[in-house]
Amino acid sequence: MKKRVSRVTLFWSTMAFAACLILAAEQLPSTNPTDFWTYISKTNPYKSWQHWPGFPGKYPGTSPHGAFLELYVNDIALKAAKAGEDRPYGAILVKENDGKDKTTLMSITPMYKDQGYNPGAGDWYWAKYSPTGTVMAAGKVDSCINCHREGKDFLFTPARQE
After folding, report:
1. CA end-to-end distance (rounded Å), the chain
2. What angle do CA 162, 81, 147 make, to 5 degrees?
3. Distance, C-alpha 105 to centroid of its chain
4. DSSP one-letter code for 101
5. Amino acid 158: pLDDT
6. What is the DSSP string of 39-59?
7. In angstroms, what CA-CA distances link 41 with 4, 30, 35, 38, 46?
8. pLDDT at position 95, please?
9. Which residues contact 61 (CB under 8 A, 6 or more apart)?
């Protein structure tokens, strides 16, 4: 009887763990540009995320991004950044690109690390949206990849503790 109870307990524990993994995977967005925008703007709004460690608000930017930037990260990316590690799969960074006046939002440029998406570019998915969500570029964007290739894990922003 004890063996049967242990097996049943093990079975249900395994099933619960598998269900949690499936739910976690379902909560991540697809790389379809429209679906991804919906995810970062409505399903899991990036404005509710934390800033990159050490960058608590707007900071000066450079071309091709805005004159001022604000960088938001999901919990997966934040945990890795605080540990000084490369971003794991599921990491999302969203950069708001503002004009010289620090208030005019010019574009929104996210990066999403999706396993198997683009191994030659760190498996990063790149996008550029207008402030209203119109897709300006998305996917394996050569200009993003070519520039970011020089950064560690395709990023220039260092992991810094707050």
Report:
1. 54
2. 115
3. 19
4. T
5. 55
6. IIIIIS-GGGSEEPTT--S-E
7. 48, 14, 10, 5, 6
8. 96
9. 67, 68, 69, 97, 98
Would you tell me how many other CB atoms lie within 10 Å of the CB of residue 65? 18
Q: Which residues contact 2 (CB under 8 A, 6 or more apart)?
A: none
As a whole number of angstroms, the distance between CA 48 and CA 157 comes to 20
Question: What is d(CA 76, CA 86) in angstroms, rounded to the nearest whole number?
Answer: 11
Q: Span 149-160, mean pLDDT?
A: 61
Burial of 78 (0-12, 13-18, 19+ CB in 10 A): buried
- Helices assigned H by DSSP within 39-124: 75-83
How many Å separate Cα 16 from the centre of its chain?
Answer: 27
**Cα–Cα distance, 158 to 152 (Å, whole number):** 9
CB atoms inside a 10 Å sphere around CB 55: 18
pTM of the full structure: 0.78
Q: Closest Cα to residue 69, out of 48, 55, 79, 53?
A: 55
- The two structure tokens encoding residue 34: 């429209």
